[in-house]
């Protein structure tokens, strides 16, 4: 691991930045200077000051505390979503790629149908039907995002299933489950991890977008997209309500995008 960091300085830098973000997310309740849910109508829309470094919102809540708490909410939602996308997409891709035939045709036609729709529009429709909440946001984005992973994994499995070590395992009578677990999964896992890492930033933007439109997290949840929605009506009188949550989204998304790109250089042998 140390040698990897020495050979890939950018990966080491971006990994350190990701660890800082994870640290803030994990210890958000202890790092927030004030209670992110505690409102004080005497401090409504106060500009940045020594008491409130990033100002207050329409209910007098400390903006810095809500942004720090939002790190936990936004990152938790994003990581849960990416993990579910990878699991569901991989299961569908492995099933269709390894068994082929009618199973592959049915699953891939369904995946093609999902890919044919504009993802965000379909996610908004699903979230609108289910109702706005953290769980429903994850379900809506999962319903439209798994197909990409399924297509990727299927293509990898099709290349693998004709290799000599797979054929040898089949000839020796190895159970299908063991073949998939011991031979197929380890070979596709690096590419799935790379894809998931590069999708963290994208999924975070989509979650924030749904929350901004009112289909995601609901008040008083300190989620960055929701904070942008709450602050947009005060853009002229209290611009900090949009500037700082927007800056938080930009910094975190950019960090994870750069980290995912550098992780690809480390794990993908074609980039060597």
In a nutshell, what does this entry contain?
The protein is an all-alpha fold and 272 residues long. 74% of the residues lie in helices and 0% in strands.
E-strand count: 0
State the helical fraction.
over 70%
In sequence order, what are the helices and strands, one letter per element? HHHHHHHHHHH
Oligomer: single chain
In terms of topology, how is this protein built?
Blueprint: H1 2-7, H2 9-26, H3 28-31, H4 63-99, H5 101-116, H6 119-130, H7 134-160, H8 164-171, H9 176-212, H10 224-231, H11 240-267
Helix pairs in contact: 2-4, 2-11, 4-5, 4-7, 4-9, 4-11, 5-7, 6-7, 7-9, 8-9, 9-10, 9-11, 10-11
Give your account of this protein's structure.
With 272 residues, the chain is mostly helical. The protein is built from eleven helices and no strands. The longest helix has 37 residues, at 63-99. The chain is elongated and about 75 Å long. The two termini are 16 Å apart. The model has no long low-confidence stretch (mean pLDDT 87).
Question: What keywords describe this structure?
Answer:
mainly alpha; 272 residues
